[in-house]
Design brief:
The complex is a heterodimer of chains A (about 625) and B (about 35).
Chain A lengths: L1 H23 L10 H22 L5 H15 L3 H7 L6 H21 L8 H5 L1 H9 L16 H12 L2 H26 L5 H10 L1 H8 L4 H21 L2 H15 L7 H17 L3 H30 L18 H20 L9 H4 L2 H7 L17 H5 L10 H21 L8 H54 L5 H8 L1 H12 L6 E4 L12 E3 L16 H11 L3 E5 L9 H16 L5 E2 L3 E5 L8
Parallel strand pairs in A: 1-2, 1-3
Antiparallel strand pairs in A: 3-5, 4-5
Chain B lengths: L1 H31 L1
Classes of the chains: A mainly alpha (about 625), B mainly alpha (about 35).
């Protein structure tokens, strides 16, 4: 209950702060009904950047956040009630049925927010580092793993939640961003394509099985969708109105989209291309065109830059550890970058191979991606069934967007933006369902208009209803595996410890290991892909994907590794046992052989499970 | 002429959409069994 109240305060303060900023910049949308959503998104973006600032100043405490919230409410709170009153509710029975179905999915995912997080990248880095910073009261010295540098706008919202209250609030923030992203997509469609289709677009997106999985697992992809949809809407506003305020709002929202993750940088770039295209068509005086382009570029840069500046300060590379060729910063090397590429190539090959496929070779093969993405999403990364399922609607009706006559330019603009995002990521980075989510969302928005044009107004609601019902059936399979136990934890009938032991081998090991390592100890983790979330003692992660603490290209003998561990002050060593046999490439084979030889020197384990073992570091042998 | 072309385009796109839905659900149902 307190968590829900704190979320309400965060959203209210965010809305108030966003309203104040947008009003000061003359960048509020012309329609008052849109003020609340845009202002809340802007406010949350500001809150994330301020959290980064507080973390850098070692002020990640409740009091500074209370002061900031009070300040935001004092400055912009007076216009908040008007913004709330101006929000328009959905029209018609069908729209309310869709809203009810979305509410059903949201209600079904509630128990998962009050049980400990299990699975996915959330325990690897999305929640692990924000929680650590909140515990430390600020950023901790890096580098020690590059995932600590892959922390973006939504991660800092998680840090805020941990600092103010704790894990449940962080999970609520994740869900709130998920809801806001669906509302933003609905708003984009309703504002620029057809007022009656907004709810359909929002519901189709919100109930997509992959989207449902993001309701129960924390990540950052929904914040990219949130800001991308709002930026696209503001850009379309500006192409029609030419108002400088609309352009400023476009830049602010595209900037926040760029702050959501490295791939999110594509949004300000693509929207920037859209701005230039609109300027070329409108042909204003040269000076005015340059001023508009500069205003967009500078504002977008300001609002995207904080997390990248942090990485520059700490490593010299804004994208650390990626883009090493472009930004050869500290604590990384060309060899480490090359091995990271090898790792990702192996990953793609293995995941596709398990489905009897192989990764795309060349741009032409990537043209199959929309089909494969829809039909066999597990070929890109295995997960629990349907966690990457995007439903059939976008693929089925995206071509029909070409039929749209009414507001054709907007429909094609949204479709083009979505296809460009998805295409560039799929061909240039990684054809992975989650990475192209903003593209899917935008294509879905255009497909809704296409589907309605093609099928007619009578048939269309049935099409949407059948699709949403299908989504919900599959989404239920995504949520189901831990649902009953999550309900028990949420109701206090099952303790978190028992829940974790049952559902996570990693937690089962660390629950005991945390007790065996003293609070003053330091545990080194020999694991390729460590998930540090359950580790409650000081730790260092010594994956061979990293090279900040131990450079396995130089440390090749057990004695040298033991000396390096002693040099770090390590008292205990935790080992991923199945990982000791990994040998997918010569480097991996060499490192795991080194690990095996080193583990033999550690003596019998202090504690072991089938997956992990904990050792005590032996005393240093006497010299001479 | 234009109307006939539009009708043909709609028919083609409707066939595509129906094929996508059919493939999608056949794959899902086969996976579930």
């Amino acid at each position: 209950m307190i968590d829900a109240a704190l979320l309400a305060v965060l959203l209210a303060a965010g809305g108030a702060g966003g309203l104040a900023l947008l009003r000061a910049g003359g960048a509020l949308p012309r329609r008052r009904a849109e003020h609340l959503l845009v202002a809340t998104a802007v406010g949350l973006g500001l809150a994330a950047h301020l959290t980064l600032g507080l973390a850098a100043l070692q002020l990640l405490r409740q009091l500074p956040f209370a002061v900031l919230a009070a300040l935001a409410l004092a400055v912009g709170g007076r216009s908040l009630p008007d913004a709330v009153r101006a929000v328009r509710s959905p029209h018609g029975r069908f729209a309310w049925v869709l809203v009810a179905l979305c509410a059903l999915l949201l209600a079904a995912s509630v128990p998962s927010w009050f049980a400990p997080p299990v699975g996915g990248d959330q325990t690897k880095y999305h929640l692990a580092y924000p929680r650590l910073w909140a515990q430390a009261g600020g950023l901790v010295p890096t580098p020690w793993t590059f995932w600590g540098q892959q922390q973006w706008l939504q991660n800092f919202l998680f840090a805020l939640a941990y600092a103010v209250r704790g894990e449940d609030l962080a999970r609520l923030v994740n869900a709130a961003v998920a809801v806001l992203s669906a509302l933003a997509l609905a708003g984009l469609v309703s504002r620029h394509l057809d007022r009656r289709l907004g709810v359909a677009a929002g519901a189709l997106f919100f109930t997509m099985p992959m989207a449902a999985s993001q309701l129960v697992r924390c990540g950052v992809d929904r914040s990219v969708v949130l800001y991308a949809a709002l930026a696209a809407s503001a850009w379309l506003d500006w192409t029609k109105s030419g108002r400088p305020g609309d352009l400023r709002r476009t830049a602010i929202l595209a900037g926040f989209a760029g702050a959501t993750k490295v791939m999110g940088l594509l949004i300000p770039v693509l929207v920037g291309v859209g701005v230039l295209a609109a300027l070329a068509r409108r042909r204003p005086a040269a000076g005015a065109a340059v001023r508009s382009a500069l205003a967009y570029g500078v504002l977008a840069l300001v609002f995207l830059s904080p997390p990248y500046l942090r990485n520059v300060v700490e490593t010299g590379n804004p994208l650390y550890p990626f883009g090493h060729g472009l930004f050869p910063g500290r604590h990384w090397s060309a060899a480490a970058a090359a091995y990271l590429d090898t790792y990702y190539a192996q990953y793609r090959e293995r995941e596709a191979g398990e489905q009897g496929k192989r990764p795309y070779a060349g741009v032409l093969e990537v043209l199959w991606f929309p089909w494969d993405l829809t039909m066999t999403p597990d070929a890109f990364e295995k997960g629990r069934r349907f966690v990457h399922d995007v439903g059939p609607f976008a693929l089925a009706f995206a071509p029909a967007a070409l039929l749209v006559r009414r507001r054709r330019a907007a429909a094609l603009g949204i479709l083009g933006l979505g296809l460009a995002y998805g295409g560039i990521i799929a061909a240039g980075a990684w054809a992975h369902p989650r990475y192209v989510l903003p593209g899917i969302a935008l294509v879905l928005a255009a497909s809704v208009a296409g589907g309605c044009t093609m099928s007619g107004r009578r048939l269309f609601p049935w099409l949407v209803a059948v699709t949403v019902a299908g989504h919900l059936v599959l989404a239920a399979r995504v949520i189901a595996p831990m649902w009953a136990d999550q309900v028990r934890v949420a109701l206090g009938r099952l303790d978190s410890e028992t829940f974790l032991r049952k559902h996570s081998a990693r937690h089962a090991f660390w629950a005991e290991a945390n007790r065996l390592v003293p609070a003053t100890g330091l545990v080194a983790v020999l694991e390729k892909i460590p998930h540090p979330y359950p580790i409650e003692r000081p730790f260092v992660l010594l994956s061979y994907l990293e090279q900040g603490l131990v450079e396995y290209r130089a440390v090749t003998a057990p004695d040298a590794l033991l000396a390096a561990l002693r040099g770090l002050g390590v008292t205990h060593v935790a080992v991923d046992r199945p990982g000791l046999d990994a040998a997918a490439d010569p480097f991996e084979r060499a490192v795991t052989a080194l690990w095996r030889a080193t583990v033999v020197r550690l003596g019998p384990p202090l504690y072991e499970t089938p997956d992990y073992a904990l050792y005590v570091m032996p005393p240093e042998p006497a010299h001479g | 002429m234009l109307r006939a072309r539009m009708r043909a385009a709609r028919l083609l796109l409707a066939t595509w959409a129906a094929a996508v839905y059919a493939f999608y659900w056949v794959i899902r149902l086969r996976g579930a069994s």
